[in-house]
Design goal:
single chain; 510 residues; mainly beta; 11-stranded mixed beta sheet; globular; disordered N terminus
Length: 510
């Protein structure tokens, strides 16, 4: 952990000392240089499955790689989809390996605090240079376990440490006692009922969020719309100024994007998320392709908690039926679960029963989380029964119900479902972050439409199959059983593989 200090001498010879402990976003190159930084691990070990010496043309030259790795490295990639069970707990990337360390070369590593150390895995030809090796994956070391005097197990997780960083470090200072040290709210896209947090004694000045508001929609005091001219945005567009003290609570509809309560497209939302995280290794092209395929206006997201970037992605991407994963270079990629039978274009694979090693394992996809209903237009703060004016004319019952819910609306899909998905008829709505009803209706119709026919999950194992496959890709799988004799297009749901042994396992959905 690092802290930076800056000292300035004002014209009145007052000395000011500023400490950046990582609580506020940096502004300007000098400030960014003092941003919070974590522990740096330097070149802890170089390992291989055989003893290897890099060539004189490599960087570093003549570096020795200890041949301690037994049975290669098993890597893992996956995508998730909200109707599936336990989707929110699925890791997007990882790897594991075992090393045979009879000489104790890694004993110090096993006892050290190396959690989070960067790990790069590459595959080189026998006798080839390190420079000509191909990327397998980038990871972070999670733990080193001593299994016995000979064997140690290394567990690796995804490489993007920024996913576990908070979406914001900004906090209110103690000069606002009621808010002191609490996180400054985050708004991305269009959000309803954003609470105006009073920062002075009479509530005429209130804080909205940590970035300038592009559009201020309805401003409500106890659910009743405030008249134009009784409030305005402060010059910084982050605070609300009222002419006279409100009764409270005051909530506002705001957009961080533009006029007419414009929501954020997926590209805009991800750009804002990764800007805050100072993360550049993500695929703009994937996000733009999802925006183009859906045509959705977009989403709105709000939090007053110091949640991680991973939690924000988990809140936004499922609305699109999408998830993220990491490619071999550690770049964050985004894939959307669609109907594989409707796939147009080249197939990622064409596997048959002859390619398999071992038995095929097939299970039905029961889609335990599937529902016909989708909630949309989230309220940042749901008002309680005592938070409204008593006048039922100014704030009728329908409006009270809208403002007292976590979401302002629900849509329902009446499309046919296969009989085993009848539980979706009575299931609770899926909570999306779409702002517009049309987007929510189109998406829930699409998801329900996927389950008009029974779906299955196939677990297959193959070896020495030359496949460049990624999660979310579509291919053809043919087998003599389970109705697969004519071949079926299926999506890659998860992908464990070992580039050394040549073994590849896939979980296919279709």
């Amino acid at each position: 952990m690092a802290y930076r200090f800056a000292v300035s001498i004002a014209s009145d010879t007052t000395v000011r000392c500023i400490v950046n402990a990582g609580r506020w976003p940096a502004r300007g190159p000098a400030a960014r240089a003092g941003w919070f930084s974590g522990t740096v691990h330097h070149d802890l070990a170089k390992l291989s499955d055989v003893d290897y010496l890099s060539s004189g043309s490599d960087t570093p030259a003549h570096a020795r790689y200890e041949g301690l790795i037994a049975e290669g490295v098993t890597t893992f990639q996956s995508v998730s989809f909200w109707p599936w069970a336990g989707s929110e707990e699925v890791p997007v990337a990882g790897a594991s390996l075992r090393v045979l360390d009879s000489a104790g070369l890694l004993d110090a590593l096993a006892l050290a605090d190396v959690n989070g150390a960067d790990v790069v895995v590459r595959q080189a030809e026998q006798g080839g240079t390190a420079a000509s090796s191909l990327p397998v994956g980038r990871y972070r070391l999670e733990r080193v376990e001593v299994l016995d005097n000979l064997t140690k197990a290394l567990t690796l997780r995804g490489s993007r440490a920024t996913l576990d960083e908070p979406i914001t470090r900004a906090v209110f200072m103690p000069n606002v006692p009621a808010l002191a040290w609490s996180s400054v709210p985050v708004v991305i896209g269009a959000v309803g009922s954003v609470p105006a947090l009073p920062v002075n004694s009479d509530g005429t000045v209130s804080w909205l969020c940590d970035t300038p508001v592009a559009e201020l929609g309805a401003v409500l005091d106890r659910g009743d719309a405030m008249e134009p001219g009784t409030f305005e945005l402060a010059p910084d567009s982050q605070q609300l100024i009222m002419v006279s003290p409100p009764v409270g609570p005051v909530v506002c509809d705001v957009s961080s994007v533009g006029p007419d309560m414009q929501p954020a497209t997926l590209v805009q939302a991800l750009r804002e998320i990764f800007r805050r995280a100072d993360e550049g290794a993500w695929s703009l092209e994937d996000a733009a392709a999802i925006d183009a395929a859906t045509g959705y206006a977009g989403i709105g997201y709000y939090t007053r908690e110091s949640v991680s970037v991973r939690e924000v992605l988990s809140a936004i991407l499922p609305s699109y039926g999408a998830w993220w994963w990491e490619d071999a270079e550690g770049v964050l990629r985004f894939s959307r679960v669609t109907d594989p039978a409707a796939h147009v274009g080249d197939l990622a694979f064409d596997l048959s029963e002859d390619d398999l090693e071992g038995d095929l394992v097939v299970t039905p996809d029961l889609a335990p989380n599937l529902t016909r209903r989708m909630a949309y237009r989230p309220n940042a703060q749901a008002l309680g029964a005592g938070d409204f004016v008593t006048d039922l004319v100014d704030v009728p019952a329908s409006r009270r119900a809208e403002l007292s819910s976590l979401y302002r609306g629900q849509v329902y899909s009446a499309l046919p479902l296969a009989p085993q998905y009848a539980h979706a008829d009575a299931a609770d709505p899926f909570s999306s972050v779409f702002w517009r009803k049309e987007d929510a209706q189109a998406e829930i119709d699409r998801v329900v439409g996927l389950y008009a026919v029974p779906r299955m999950v196939c677990q297959v194992r193959a070896r020495d199959v030359d496949l460049s496959i990624s999660p979310g890709q579509v291919g053809k799988f043919t087998h003599s059983r389970y109705g697969l004799h004519a071949g079926r297009l299926m999506i890659v749901r998860s992908l464990p593989r070992n580039p050394v042994t040549g073994e590849i396992s896939m979980v296919l959905w279709g």
